[in-house]
Amino acid sequence: MRKTHLFALILLSFTAITWAQEKQIEVAEIYQGAFRTEGMDALRSMKNGTQYTVLNTNRFSQITTVDKYDYKTLEKVGTVVSSADLADIPSFSSYDFSSDEKKILLSTEVEPIFRRSKLGIYYVYDVASKKVVKISADKIQEPLLSPNGSHVAYVKNNNIYIFNIASGETKQVTEDGVQNKIINGVTDWVYEEEFAFVRAFEWNADGSKIAFLRFDETNVPEFSMDVYGTGLYQQPHVFKYPKAGENNSIVTLHLLDVASGAISSVDLKDAYYVPRIKWKNHKDYLSVQTLNRHQNQLTMYSVNAKKGDVSVLLVEKDGAYVDVTDNLTFLEDDSFIWTSEKDGWNHIYLYGEDGSLMNQITKGDWEVTKYYGYDQDEDKIYYQSTENGSINRGVYNISSGGDDKKGLAVTKGTNNASFSTDFTYFINTFSSAEMPQVYTLHQAINGKKVKDIKDNSQLLKSLEGYAVSPKEFSTITINGNDLNMYMIKPKDFDPAKKYPLFMYQYSGPGSQNVSNSWMGANDYWHQNLVAEGYIVACVDGRGTGFKGRDFKKVTQKELGKYEVEDQIAAAKKLSELRYIDEERTGIWGWSYGGFMSTNCILKGNDTFEMAIAVAPVTSWAFYDTIYTERYMQTPQENPSGYDDNSPFNYPQLLEGDYLLIHGTGDDNVHVQNSMRMIEALIQADKQFDWGIYPDKNHGIYGGNTRIHLFNKMTNFIKEKL
Fold first, then answer.
1. Do the beta carbons of residue 516 and residue 412 sit within 8 Å?
2. Residue 34 CB neighbour total at 10 angstroms
3. Which CATH code for domain 465-720?
4. Is the pLDDT of residue 20 over 80?
5. Cα dist from 216 to 108, 250, 291, whole Å
6. Distance CA 489, CA 536 (A)
7. Can you tell me the distance from the alpha carbon of 696 to that of 484, in angstroms, rounded to the nearest whole number?
8. How far apart are CA 545 and CA 542, in angstroms?
9. DSSP state for residue 38 in the 8-state scheme
10. Is 480 exposed, middle or buried (0-12, 13-18, 19+ CB in 10 A)?
């Protein structure tokens, strides 16, 4: 479909939505998938750069295949592996190629542990011989093929093993792994949650060495969480969880010589956290990133794996904190590309092999939001940024010298690219507040569109009969800052009438809710409320992201102070509008947003008449070390920052209607937070409403749960606001 045709369709669709006899979006429809967008299956570019693979599952036979497609035609050109040809594997849920693409890891019987970690039964499939080998009869974690595809390293019961594919022999590398004490090769809970990785080992370029992290969590306090299940007795789930100010795991770096089995330790001096390890292109050199406990100094070391020598490559300091990313890229000569906020905005830098700064590649009062990679042949760096406005995202390329910049996909809205391995092509995903996802194929060097792939015109057609109101984007000046905002008004909006105001926010450090992108589940729910006669508004206050370092980090050591001030002030200013009923103002949020909505109805009890908090933090002393101390330091160092912004310390301020919701199986924001809030409110003799979801985690989902939860919140809003 041509772009002009699609835009015309969208215009006609929204015209139809405006004038047709409209239905109201219902909660059950949202969570039963009635408005699900058509997506692209996760594709992986092959090394030849002209083809990609996709995991497909036949919904009738449940046979899974890894199929190969051509970028230029988007046509299927073959099947790499099919479960129909594998006697012992009726289906598989994921796959990973070896570096030479001659072998594939297949995963089956996968079960989650925490947010990112999982256990499973894994196989190695040989593409040429079509033979398949089971790695272990037991469930294992994080298997990784060696570069030449001859071995698989993995973790089982907190120890590292190496499986020889040809001989079928398995060698246990470490011996000291013990649950809730010693972990080798995978991360502990807090690293997984906050540094966003699980596998803590890596093969070097020729497979002769493995670098791995060892976690000694012996002195980390344990957290116990009851799992009620369906049995006669509940079962305790006990795991190590370091709350703010408590002991973290002692993390050390080790090098395994695969041939001899010898393990050596690397002295990283006073390193407290080790959030990233990455081999350089030279097989004997490893890069290691470390952080101090305050996370305001990041040091990147270069480790000579042969000699054990350690030298400093780069030191990054910040008065607040330094973000950890995956944007590090080593070039052929081991010079490297890196992103930093050192000039006040997140930008791309080029460093020499010795760590000397060669060039700041991107510059300006805007942020690089994604780094896609570097095409060394064409000397082009590919990235996404906010150059087109902080609520938009565009895709660009630029030379390593910082010139010859080209916009590749910059239509106002959200553009996100997936590049072929050799940067010949990219598939762009575009959406905006008016347009659901559209997928197109482009040439990477100049952004020229090759062809349309897929759009969501069918979704727009299905929405024709529903009452859907547009987001109206603007800025609102609050406490000296122009804050991004959107407002959604009823379709039959009458400026002479008075409407209740319902505010939504998250507000956590570096986050963004006000973005020019298509609707998610919460947006559809907001449409339900708007159709009932509410005005919904969202304001990204101080501390949120993509408006520079200073705007984001102003909340340092005071989480919940400036963000709450901004939401209260925004609500007051919006209440001055003649069509807003200042006596009917509500706010809601989830997680950090629940912490915020709770604080708002307490500290803003003259502004908010109602609040809903889902899975809220009620004291940062209850949350984990890495996240909390990054922004707050420890409770011992910053007691007022913790106490002054912890809502259970001032329950007596509650005047309005308050609904508190939590899942008992939340391993992230523990239900302890809500229990302490509940007790504080009871002792302050404050009436409120609450809901507890048994065994549900931080997402509170599964079965009928989301429908029940959002119907509960909807009914509360209708009754109280």
1. yes
2. 15
3. 3.40.50.1820
4. no
5. 30, 5, 17
6. 7
7. 33
8. 8
9. P
10. exposed
- The per-residue pLDDT for 59 is 81
Residue 536 pLDDT > 70, yes or no?
Answer: yes
Point out the least confidently predicted range of 55-69, 346-360, 433-447, 554-568: 55-69
CA 113 from centre of chain: 17
Q: What residue spans of 538-671 are helical by DSSP H?
A: 549-553, 562-575, 592-603, 625-632, 639-643
Q: Is the CB of residue 267 less than 8 Å from the CB of residue 651?
A: no
CA 353 to chain CA centroid, Å, is: 31
Tell me: pLDDT of 328 over 60: yes
708 has pLDDT over 60: yes
418 CB-side CA count, 13 A: 17
Nearest of 560, 552, 279, 498 to residue 390 by alpha carbon: 552
CA angle 290, 291, 292 (to 5 degrees): 135
Strands laid side by side in the 297-304 sheet: 273-279, 285-291, 297-304, 310-317
- Give CA separation, 719 vs 36, 85, 714, in Å: 29, 58, 9
| Orientation of helix 562-575 relative to helix 592-603, angle to 10° | 60
Q: Which of 637, 551, 538 is nearest to 586 (CA)?
A: 538
Query: What is the rounded CA–CA span in Å between residue 105 and residue 172?
Result: 20
pLDDT tens digits along 372-417: 999 999 999 999 999 999 999 999 999 999 999 999 999 999 999 9
Give mean pLDDT, residues 189-214: 97
Residues 6+ apart with CB under 8 A from 462: 34, 35
Q: Which amino acid is at 649?
A: N
Distance of CA 567 to the CA centre of its chain: 24
Question: Using CA of residue 635, residue 640, residue 641, residue 646, what is the dihedral sign?
Answer: positive
What is the gyration radius of the CA atoms in the chain, in angstroms? 27
Separation between Cα atoms, residue 713 and residue 594, nearest integer Å: 13
Tokens at 716, concatenated:
């509360």
Q: Provide the sign of the torsion angle of the four alpha carbons 132, 134, 139, 140, taken in this order.
A: negative
Amino acid at 513: N
Average pLDDT value for the chain: 95
Q: Residue 60: its pLDDT value, please? A: 84
Strand ranges in 258-309 using DSSP code E only, listed in sequence order: 263-266, 273-279, 285-291, 297-304
Please name the residues in contact with 698: beta carbons below 8 A apart, sequence gap of 6 or more.
Answer: 591, 615, 663, 666, 667, 668, 669
The pTM assigned to this predicted structure is 0.94
Question: CB-hemisphere CA count at 13 Å for 47?
Answer: 6
Tell me the C-alpha to C-alpha distance, in Å, between residue 668 and each of 160, 194, 539, 699. Answer: 27, 10, 26, 10
State the Cα–Cα distance between residues 380 and 398, nearest whole angstrom: 5
Token pair belonging to 52: 């990609």
Query: Closest Cα to residue 471, out of 14, 38, 25, 23?
Result: 14
Query: Span 488-512, mean pLDDT?
Result: 98
Element (H, E) at 43: strand 43-45
Structure tokens at 124: 């190695």
Q: Which of 19, 431, 400, 17 is nearest to 383 (CA)?
A: 400
- Tokens standing for 427? 């598939």
SS3 557: coil
Cβ–Cβ < 8 Å for 665, 696: yes
> What's the distance, CA 511 to chain centroid?
10
Provide the pLDDT confidence category of residue 22 given band limits of 50, 70 and 90: confident
Mean pLDDT over residues 199-212, rounded?
97
Q: What is the Cα–Cα distance from 308 to 267, expressed in whole angstroms?
A: 8
Query: Do residues 313 and 287 lie in contact, with contact meaning Cβ atoms separated by under 8 Å?
Result: yes
Residue 18: is its pLDDT beyond 80? no
